Amino acid sequence: MDFILYGIFLFIFTVGFVEILNITERWVVRSKRPPSSIIIIPLCGHMEEIEMLAREFKAKFRRNDRANLLLLDMGMDKETRDICEIFCADNRNFILCYYHQIDNILRKNVAVR
Length: 113
Known about the structure:
Layout: H1 2-29, E1 37-45, H2 50-60, E2 67-76, H3 78-90, E3 94-98, H4 102-109
Parallel strand pairs: 1-2, 2-3
C-alpha cells in the first residue's frame, strides 16, 4: 500500500515540478511588449460557432492589449451580426466592419512602431 501512495505522490510531484518549470520558462522568454497583431475572420451567411470563436480569442489574448480580432462582414445574416455587435460592444479588441471598410480599419489599427 505504501508503494502505491509513494508512486502517486511521486507522479503528482513530477507533474507539479514540470509545470513550475514551464511557467518560469514562459516568464523568462516573454517579450516585454507584445507586438500588435490583428486576426481577420471573414464571415458570410450564418455561422453557428462565432460565439465560441470569439470567446476562444478573448481567452487566448486576454493579456495582450495589442491583439485585435477583426470580424469582416461579407454578407452575414442578422443573427450572426447581432452576436458580433454584442461582442464588439463588450470588448474593445473586437472590431466589426464591412469588407469595403477594411482599408481604413487596418490603417488606423496597425501601425509600425
